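ok trying this again, last paste got cut off
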Amino acid sequence: MKKIVLLLVFSTIFSLEALPQSKKEKRTAKFTEIKNLAKSQHFQMEAMDATTQKGRKISLIGRSNDFKMEGEQASADLAYFGAAQSASYGGMDNGILFKGKMIDYSIEVSDKKRKIVIKFRNKSPKETFDIILTLTDSDYATLSIRSNKRNGIRYYGKVQSLE
């Protein structure tokens, strides 16, 4: 009887130790998947929330707010909520719109923090955007955009492969 109890105790301990390892393995596998997606430069982010420079959080659910990276090209069609620093004659588009080749592209991968930071610059006909995209081992990302003509804004959303 003692042998059976000891066997049950040891098997319980070993099964409890195996549980955190499987979670860690899942997180590591997920981060590897996100890292490969980032390095492929072939993905999109659908923004679900935006936070203005003044801290106001706005839900974007129900609206189309997309950021895409396709090779050396990046494009965005995102709603903008904030103040303009300067306006050109004839006004400017309400949203953040750009499509073109990424300038000064860089990628930093931290395996220890399970974080990927992609930085680049992009231009539209009327303004220049500095972009920082942060990816983690979840499917979520943060997209920070600064412009030479508007206050900065931050978008939060899910990242997925382009189909």
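PB: full thing came through this time. Residues 2-40 form the longest helix (39 residues).
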